[in-house]
Write a structure and sequence with these properties.
The chain is of the alpha+beta class. It has two domains: 48-193, OB fold (Dihydrolipoamide Acetyltransferase, E2P), CATH 2.40.50.90; 202-248, no CATH class. 25% of the residues lie in helices and 21% in strands. It is built from six helices and eleven strands. It has helices spanning 2-19, 93-104, 138-144, 146-152, 168-180, 230-235, and strands at 48-57, 60-65, 68-74, 76-78, 108-112, 124-129, 157-159, 203-206, 212-213, 226-229, 239-240. The strands form four sheets. The chain has a five-stranded mixed beta barrel. A hairpin with a 2-residue loop joins strand 1 (48-57) and strand 2. Helix 3 crosses helix 4 (146-152). The longest helix has 18 residues, at 2-19.
Amino acid sequence: MRKVFYLLLILIAVVSGCSGLSPASNVSDQTLPQSQEAGQQPARAPLLKAKVTRVVDGDTVHVRLNGTDQTVRLIGVDTPETVKPNSPVQPYGKEASGYTRSQLEGKTVYIEKDVQDRDKYGRLLAYIWLDQPTAVSDLEIRGKLFNARLLLEGYAQILTIPPDVKYVDYFIGYQKEARDGNKGLWGPSAHTPPPQDQGQHTTVYITRTGKKYHLEGCSSLARSQIPISLPDAKAKGYGSCKVCKPPL
């Protein structure tokens, strides 16, 4: 009986050796697709190539896009008014319009959208790139994103309406840089303070989770701050902060 048992053990060992199997051999080698390899960023959505046909004012232009005329409102910035019905031309408005005209009119540009497609007036909401960016970086945004150029040169102030806040952190820094450097509408020759039009262009700040709007520098903005116009903050149901007491 023992001989039979030993013979069975020897037979099992021989069969296992011939098969060449090991516990690890049942797991196939797998590689990630190239786009998912470590260290690579996902591809960005393609930009829309367009040609600027007319400049309305500092922050609004007409473009030829896919064979149609589109009115484009630049996201995140607000230049002084020059063509608003029944309203006077605001200080530094002509300079801002002139700058936009010199930089964009007749030029081929690249349109980038954010979350919302259009505003309540039917205008296409967009960032305008002067050249295609190779990365999302401070260097690329400063040099190629026209919305950012308006802030850096002092031709505009921040006017961000959530949820279109893709570049808001950069824009906050660019406005501060222009203000600290007394550029454009922040300079002594531009009839400071910047145009406010009885609150229509007053910038206040909200947070990503709160329900109040605040003045710049409020302690409640320690973790996040998103600029927004006072009328839009009110329209979206935000209340006035009782600590910093912004305008009502």
